[in-house]
Amino acid sequence: MSVSAHRRRAFFYAVIAASLLVTCVRLPWSLSSFPDANSVASALSQLQVVAYRPRVLGYSRDQFGNGWAMRLSSDGDYLDTRDIVLRQAAVGAQPRQNPAEATDGYTGATELASTMEIDHVYPLAAAWDMGAWSWEAEQRRRFANDVDINLVATAGAINRDKSDSTPGLWLPPPAGGHCHYVSQFLTVALHYRLAISSADAQVARDVCGL
Known about the structure:
- The chain is mainly α.
- Helices cover about 45% and strands about 10% of the residues.
- The protein has one domain (about 35-210).
- The strands form four sheets. Strands 1-8 form a two-stranded parallel ribbon.
- Helix 1 runs parallel beside helix 6, helix 1 (about 5-45) runs antiparallel to helix 7 and helix 6 (about 180-190) packs across helix 7 (about 200-210).
- The longest helix has about 40 residues, at about 5-45.
C-alpha cells in the first residue's frame, strides 16, 4: 500500500473517531431532550394556533376564584394550593408541612420557601384571552388551582418578569430548560383546549429543534 493510501486511511479513521467522540459528548443532552421535544411536536399537531393573542375585556383574578382554593393534599392534610405546591417543591428531607427551602421550578435554584411565589405556567390572563372567558366559573377555579400541571414555585423576581406572558414573549432563564418549559405550557393548553399564538408555536419549534 502506498504512503498516500496509508494517509488517506488514517485520515478516514481520524474523522470517524472524532465523530464518535462528538456523539458521545452530545448524547446525554440529546436523549434528555427527546421526551420534551416529542411532547411538543405532538401537542403542536393538535392545538389550535391563532395569529395573535386577542385581548378580551372583563378579566380579573377573581374570575378564577377568590384566591387559592383549599383542598386535601396527598398526605391527607387540608391545605391551600400554595402550600401544596411548596410541599411538592420542598428540598431534601425537610418537614413536609412547612418546608424551609424549595426548588425553583424554572431555574432549579434553591430558594427560601417563604419568599417564593406560585406561577401559572399558562397565565390566567392569557387563558382568559384564549378561551377561558367562556368557561363556567368552576372550570376556571380548577384551572387556577391545578397543582398537577399548571403551577410552579418560583422566585418572585422571575414571576414578576414573566407576568402574563406566554412563550412567544417570555422564556425562563436557560438553566430552567426552554424546551421543558414550552412542553409544560403546551401540555396545559392541550389539556384545557386553549389556543396558542403563532409566536408561541414558533418559539416552541425553535427551542426544541423541531
